[in-house]
Amino acid sequence: MNEKTTHFGFQDIPEDEKAGRVRGVFGSVASKYDVMNDVMSLGIHRAWKDAMMDWLAPRPGQRLLDVAGGTGDVAFRFLKRAGSGHAAVLDLTEPMLIEGRKRAEAEAMADSLDWIVGDAMALPFDDNAFDVYTISFGIRNVTRPQEALNEAYRVLRPGGRLMVLEFSQIPNDMMQKAYDLYSFNIIPRMGQAIAGDHDSYQYLVESIRKFPDQDTFLSMVKQAGFGNAKYRNLSLGIACLHSGWKL
Q1: CB of 106 closer than 8 Å to CB of 77
Q2: In this predicted model, what pLDDT tens digit does every residue of 87-129 receive, in sequence order?
Q3: In sequence order, what are the beta bridge partners of 6?
Q4: CA 190 from chain center: how many Å?
Q5: Nearest-10 crossing angle of helices 15-29, 33-41
Q6: Nearest CA among 3, 5, 17, 11 for reference residue 207
Q7: In Å, how far from its chain's centre is CA 244?
């Protein structure tokens, strides 16, 4: 009987090893994760997350589940936009959640936040428990992304909204090649200089190249049951927002 495999960057590994390796990557970079996001994207990740909130249009009283929520960036934005509500931040890697709880916003919003260690493929929540499900730059690290989308559908209430922000593919070969040169030659070196970790950032660059393109991922969102599913490219397709509704 053949052992099921998946990718870890450009390596093929047994499926049951991926979660542990992902924990190792993010545990290693947790204390420098926010700084590295700013450096790697020249601060543009903040504009991408703002664009996510613009399309999401949070409303007062909504319950958010932010999966792979790490240091709380999306949850904080959501609660500020909504004005009132509740956010559960779930992440596979506890050191990322610890870094999130250290942030000033976490203390100011403590009554509106839960920090939970958990797996996107087996969410520890009842059916129909949330109004909104978000996952930002995290679904490409999940062993079986389709199962994560299926779980998102399960825990959302009827009328609930899915939104996925993830790195994607530039639909222009010349620009994609230029972006690849930057990614593979600069980002791991930045990781070494700033976080003391070349290998983790090499994995992060490779994982982007292994993630499905926009239309393939859109079909996965639809397969999970979401209606009115669509996407918007950000920064020419370097990142992409996918949206869907539990109708």
Answers
A1: no
A2: 999 999 999 999 999 998 999 999 999 999 999 999 999 999 9
A3: 13
A4: 21
A5: 90
A6: 11
A7: 16
Measure the CA–CA gap between 89 and 57, rounded to whole angstroms: 19
Distance of CA 233 to the CA centre of its chain: 16
Residue 115 amino acid letter: W
- To which residue do tokens 């020249």 refer? 42
Q: 3-class SS at 245?
A: strand
Q: Give the number of other Cβ atoms within 10 Å of residue 185's Cβ.
A: 10
pLDDT, mean of residues 60-75:
96
0.85 cut: is pTM over it?
Answer: yes
What does DSSP assign to residue 61?
T
- Which of 235, 247, 241, 217 has the alpha carbon at shortest distance from 57? 241
* Structure token digits, residue 153: 């559908």
Q: How far is CA 100 from the centre of its chain?
A: 15
Cα 90 versus chain centre, distance: 11
Cα–Cα distance measured from residue 69 to residue 90, given in angstroms and rounded to the nearest whole number: 6
Q: Which residue has the tokens 């992902």?
A: 22
Sort 155 into a burial class: Cβ within 10 Å, 0-12 / 13-18 / 19+.
Answer: buried
Longest CA pairwise span in the chain (Å): 53
Decide the pairing of beta strands 11-14 and 227-234.
unpaired
In contact, 78 and 132? CB cutoff 8 Å: yes
Do residues 170 and 237 lie in contact, with contact meaning Cβ atoms separated by under 8 Å?
yes
Of the candidates 85, 92, 8, 50, which has an alpha carbon nearest to the alpha carbon of residue 241?
Answer: 50
